Amino acid sequence: MSEIVIADKKFSLLLTSEKIQQQIELIAELMNDDLKNHEVIFIGILNGAFMFAADLLKRIQFNAQVSFVKVSSYQGLESGAKIKRLIGIDEELKGKTVVILEDIIDTGRTIEDIIQQIKGYRPEQIRIASLLLKHEIFRSSLTIDYVGFKIPNRFVIGYGLDYLGYGRNLRNIYVIEDTD
Ligand code: IMP
Ligand code: MG
Fold first, then answer.
1. Pocket residues for ligand 1 (CB within 6 Å)?
2. Which long-range contacts (CB under 8 A, 24 or more apart) does 9-12 make?
3. Measured between alpha carbons, how far apart are the two ends of the chain, in Å?
């Protein structure tokens, strides 16, 4: 399928499933090398990272724990700013290497909030892996240790990413078409 329609929007093919799998293989090879001597827990950020996490973790060859968390976004009472809270951390993170698995990093605000909260659990170190990075608008000083693809600042769906809750099940990644 080279074009997808969801509600009022059209999307065209950006990254094929084959390309995505190749890139994930490379990330897994790097991790197998970098992290094999550490006590690792992978933490996937739901919902978007479920496919990336599943395909990556099948290729990880050392013993590691796997968990998933959700980021709940709610309006702060005082500031009016959106506060993002991590829910679902049940495992001990203290002294471990935490590898965050994200589907996409845009401005970097979400990942900054996540890292801030993970630090509170006193891990030995935190690594960040994101399948996609919108590098043109990324505004953070954080290092993204593992990046699958740098993509333009356009809205994308597929392979975990959604528009209005749809599109997560697609095996390819699609980019929104210009409307004008
Ligand atoms: P950030 O806080 O600006 O880095 O935004 C990151 C979050 O916004 C991601 O975790 C996604 O949930 C969402 N997001 C950003 N860009 C896209 C996109 O192109 N498609 C779908 N979701 C996106
Ligand atoms: Mg997300």
1. 48, 104-110, 155-156, 161
2. 9/163, 9/176, 9/177, 10/176, 10/177, 11/156, 11/157, 11/158, 11/163, 11/167, 11/174, 11/175, 11/176, 11/177, 12/174, 12/175, 12/177
3. 23
User: How much distance in Å is there from the Cα of 102 to the middle of ligand 2?
Assistant: 6
Contact 136, 108 (CB under 8 A): no
Handedness of CA 18, 100, 154, 166 (dihedral sign): positive
Quick: pLDDT tens for 65-120: 999 999 987 655 555 567 788 998 988 999 999 999 999 999 999 999 999 999 99
Q: Looking at ligand 1, which atom is closest to the CA of residue 156?
A: 19
Ligand nearest to the CA of 168: 1
**62 CA to centre of ligand 1 in angstroms:** 30
CA distances from 111 to 29, 45, 80, 166 (A): 23, 10, 20, 23
